[in-house]
Amino acid sequence: MERFFRLAEHGTTTRRELLAGVTTFLTMAYIIVVNPQFLNAFGENPDIAWPISATVTATCLASGLMCIFMGLLSNYPIALASGMGLNAIALGLALQLGGFAAAMGVFVIEGIAITLLVLTRVREKVMEAIPMPLKHAIAVGIGLFLTLMGLQKGGIIVSDPDTMVKLGDLVSFPVLTVVLGLFITGVLMARRVPGGILIGIVFTTVLATAANHIAGFTPVGESVLGFAAGTAVMPDRILALPDFSTFGRVDFGAIFTEMGWLGAVLTIFAVMLSDFFDTMGSVVAIGDKAGFMGEDGKIPRLRRVLLVDSLAAAVGGATGASSVTTYIESTAGIASGGRTGLMPVFVGAFFLSAIFFHPLVAVVPVEATAPALIIVGFLMAGLIRRIDFEKWDTALPAFIIIIVMPLAYSITDGIGAGFITYTFLKVFQGKFSEVHPLMYVVTAGFLVYFIAPVLM
Q1: What's the pTM?
Q2: Could you say which of 11, 19, 383, 413 has the lowest number of CB atoms within 10 Å?
């Protein structure tokens, strides 16, 4: 194990990688509960809904296998799972195309297309063409995105019809649990206690469970569909048998039949662009935080990372788990000391185990993972010091990325807005040669992406 993962060379140990793996898995484990709820959102309609048991199996198996594959092939602390946002796209496509088999067909096509871009080195070249200030901005923007996600999951920030957002009920038991968990985790991190984030998750889980039994509160964290993403109660059973009924249920023709060739191509392109740049943003942020991104902005073995991620999209579609993608929550494990591919191997093993023990995953409530997301967001936001705000032609696009990403609740939208701003600023200053040719291509792609809803 030492020889394969080069643990000593990366200043880590098996124990530290295991601790980071546990932290990452607990931070990501909500997807085991939430993803099936997206794919079973309309349980009364068997033509659209898929069984919860099957989607849990698919989510755990596809995520687990791709985590292990990533760890073994790239030796980077990068974990994968069914993508939040992408599963919402799957739901929308299922409603539009008449079922999830058609939606999964779109993900398989999109995954194959991105894999071809990796094999021809196009995807790698695009990432290398991005200026360093924009790469740092992507990491900072994702940090704010994670912070907002944590504040929302914890009920500290809630929606408001007049002001968009406002403070939640800070004296309610669920929110107080989150605040106390955040305080404890912050103290542990400030004192540099090893595994501070994981200890914070465990502490908050115990606190939330106790509060639930004492006060009978309902967890505040909900998905966009209104489903609770976790519960602070013990499950009524521990073991569950796997259900493989969604495996291979893929319809490639429905999108062309329902939307026509132009609509189908634009839809697949939009999904591909979202997956492409969500991953790019996550990989850049993880590389920046973990320290394996060079001064020139390049990441060694990047092609391997992108290859696994691209194949994961197709594997997710083929199993019925929706698109599997790189998870920014990997930074929680990195903050806990994860530095090699052994970390995602452990995460993958936990996902595979969860196929049988997934009722136990529901014990970890969103109140416990919300503080972790806020802390990780804070750590990533510190990279803003690397951006020179005196240089307008890179500082303004960087700011656009940072601010649009959390407010639009989309990594892709934030990157797109920033890239378009960067290219236009350079062009109107007459600095054509300072823009990499691929940035012109990407900017054109984003322009199509933003106006695609008008064209369809």
Answers
A1: 0.73
A2: 11
